[in-house]
Design a protein that fits this description.
Largest sheet: 4 strands, mixed
Shape: globular
Number of helices: 5
Oligomer: single chain
Structural class: alpha/beta
Helix content: 25-40%
Order of helices and strands: EEEEHEEHEEHHEHE
Radius of gyration: 18 Å
Length: 174
């Protein structure tokens, strides 16, 4: 019962300390290509709460590491979730990463928010975009270090809420 199937990323081009380029064909990074929603549905229908970790399996049986936020967005889309909640060590998307009081409360333009995102927040916004494009109507990026973080996000008591524009696209370039 593979829960996640992935494609292995192509070889990496790396520059060593001497400035020479080398190719790393041994890295084990991948992208989710499919979710076994039938298996997850059976577990959920049986009263179980599946706990899914980021390693996924390629078609030829190789374990690869996939981004956890991408896993969450892929599962949310595959299961037809009403919302995706991504918890973070920051309050949500910040207009200025140096000032946590400048929280972006909501947006229907994930692409337009990308310039505000640095570091791992870019991965979180990419996961939000994928979830919205996959049919999840609402996605939240919210603080994990608060009491009842999931409820706080759903109640819009904190974090950033993302939705689709009225036209139904996560961004103009999608």
């Amino acid at each position: 019962g593979r829960v996640l199937t992935a494609r292995r990323r192509p070889p990496l081009k790396l520059q060593d300390s001497g400035g020479r380029m080398r190719i790393d064909r041994e890295h084990l990074a991948g992208e989710v290509s499919s979710v076994n929603s039938a298996l997850l549905g059976t577990l959920l229908d049986g009263g179980y709460v599946p706990v899914v970790c980021p390693p996924a399996v390629t078609e030829d049986g190789v374990l690869v590491n996939v981004d956890a936020d991408h896993v969450a967005s892929s599962i949310a889309a595959a299961l037809g979730a009403k919302a995706l909640i991504i918890l973070s060590n920051v309050p949500g998307l910040l207009a200025d990463p140096k000032d946590p009081s400048l929280l972006v409360r909501s947006s229907d333009d994930v692409e337009g928010c990308m310039p505000l995102a640095g570091g791992r927040m870019r991965y979180k916004l990419e996961a939000v975009r994928r979830a919205l494009q996959g049919g999840v109507p609402t996605a939240y990026v919210s603080a994990s270090r608060v009491a009842r973080p999931v409820f706080r996000a759903l109640e819009e008591a904190g974090g950033t809420k993302f939705t689709l524009r009225d036209g139904g696209t996560a961004d103009a370039g999608a």
